């Protein structure tokens, strides 16, 4: 279980997150919504251990953020907002590069399957020739190499075609439900959020998203 | 390390041409420059004719010494041929070692030992003559010292006629007979030595070190590139720490460089007849460790590759100048202690183990790694 308690984060005078508390259970998909600059990416970075909060605590099962950072990172899969892959390498080489340096070793077959599960069927093509959707898929596949318990995705479906979007969505749903992973992801596509998420976390002072999503019938985490 | 090698190799494979070019450039560049300057110097040697009438050890020794000089290109021929070629201006001047050269010298006779021919176009006659004269002095001094010390003494004390006798004239050519012992005596007192250094003193390993400085820095541009890439956000979730990632990569690059240094040693030995020794290998090893660390630390200070390349070239120029590798002009820049100390190549160029800058560069790498780890923690 991922447990967040009274989390606050500010950049200089800009109080981005204020007293955030919530809990997420394995197998749950949480949608993170809010206007630009609301602090979605900031929250994801805190959950991913690559930034640290000013106040509050985060824990994953029995592990505490800060103290057990090294151990926690083994269980975190973080998909950055910007596509983080080697442009000059092929899909296959990207997978192998990160597999070699990953906590988990996987065979070529397993790596290829990871990609195929998302319908990423280009294998030997250089990444720079891939479509935006394909790149997003690879960006996600690399993150899954070490079988993380917690998947944190920053706008994983931004700017791609509907078909790829659906494929990624279905895949994330399977990851949560079949492999019991915790998934927290941000998106500006409210249909996608409604369809995919078990609960929705609205951040920022604006009530706009809360109002908008209330009708979906999904539980909204109030912070 | 194996995993890192596999991963890094994937990236190396993507730019085989530029990788290979920068790795091989110090070797190719050095060989080309050295052979080119050598052949230019070969071409710029003054062609002279040498006629050896005296079949003696001393005469042959003189001939070999003249041939060994970088100033002249020596053609041994008969007097007749020599004069013919001199008339055609194929030769700058002609020197004849007369029959009885050895015995004359041993007996202390000064006349008619060597004569010379020159024309109006014998531009280099004077320096060549001076060189031969001083070589004769060297030989005679040695021979006489060995065999006729007493006799010598008497000669030096007793005689004082230093005349230059003109023996004959051939149309335009003037045949000169010089009292070589006379001249020899003059040089004897001024202790003049025959300098046998080439006109441009290119030092193979010095040149190699300068080019290697540039290429090692160029090949370290991956540090700058990866710093600006979002792909590095993934490094926080790798099995190895960021510091370890960089450290392992530095080691891999070091090994790659050393592989090509081995090739450099081999090729320089075979093609440039450089002498390999254990100390040289140790000097290269220490130089390379210093250079790899320094290049990494410098590259890490930059955000733009363009600026980095420019600074690299400028640094290389400054270092080349203060090292005297490119401009071998003593006294052009005063060799102060400070200039020597701030030159990371100095120890290597001076034929020493790179210790001071080796330690500095390892220290810089450690600081850089520590800061990378802290910054991205
Ligand atoms: N490293 C940073 N330094 C200073 N301010 C930051 C930094 N990162 C984010 N911010 C600020 O925090 C706020 C939230 O940013 P972010 O989490 O990226 O928002 P979102 O992802 O919801 O659009 C913004 O006002 C942004 O300017
Ligand atoms: Mg964002």
SSE topology:
The complex is a heterodimer of chains A (223) and B (377).
Chain A: E1 2-11, E2 14-24, E3 29-33, H1 40-47, E4 55-60, E5 63-64, H2 69-73, E6 76-79, H3 91-100, H4 108-116, H5 132-143, E7 150-153, H6 162-179, E8 182-186, H7 190-196, E9 199-202, H8 208-214, E10 219-221
Parallel strand pairs in A: 3-8, 3-9, 6-7, 7-8, 9-10
Antiparallel strand pairs in A: 1-2, 1-4, 4-5
Chain B: H1 2-12, H2 16-43, E1 46-52, H3 57-68, E2 72-76, H4 79-87, E3 93-97, H5 101-107, E4 114-118, H6 125-147, H7 149-158, E5 165-170, E6 173-177, H8 180-190, H9 204-219, H10 222-227, H11 242-272, H12 278-299, H13 305-323, H14 337-341, H15 346-349, H16 356-375
Parallel strand pairs in B: 1-2, 1-3
Antiparallel strand pairs in B: 3-4, 4-6, 5-6
Bound molecules: adenosine-5'-diphosphate and magnesium ion.
Magnesium ion is lined by residues 40-41, 81, 154 of chain A.
Shape of chain B: elongated
Q: Of all protein chain pairs, which has the greatest interface, and how many residues does each chain bring to it?
A: A-B, 27 and 22 residues
CATH class of the largest domain in chain A: Alpha Beta
Give the name of the CATH superfamily of the largest domain in chain A. Answer: P-loop containing nucleotide triphosphate hydrolases
The main β sheet of chain B shows up as:
6 strands, mixed
SSE class of chain B: alpha/beta
State the assembly state of the protein chains. Answer: heterodimer
Secondary-structure element pattern of chain B, one letter each: HHEHEHEHEHHEEHHHHHHHHH
Order of SSEs of chain A, N→C? EEEHEEHEHHHEHEHEHE
The value of Rg of chain B in angstroms is 30 Å
Strand order of the largest sheet of chain A: 6-7-8-3-9-10
Percentage of residues in DSSP E strands of chain B: 5-15%
Q: How many beta-strand runs of chain B? A: 6
* Helix content bin of chain B: 55-70%
| Major sheet description of chain A | 6 strands, parallel
Mean pLDDT of chain B, as a whole number? 79
Number of helices of chain A: 8
Low-confidence stretches of chain B: 148-201
Distance between the termini of chain B: 22 Å
From the 3D coordinates, which CATH architecture of the largest domain in chain A would you assign? Answer: 3-Layer(aba) Sandwich
Organism (chain B): Ornithinibacillus bavariensis
Protein name (chain B): ABC-2 type transporter transmembrane domain-containing protein
Membrane topology (chain B): Multi-pass membrane protein
Subcellular location (chain B): Membrane
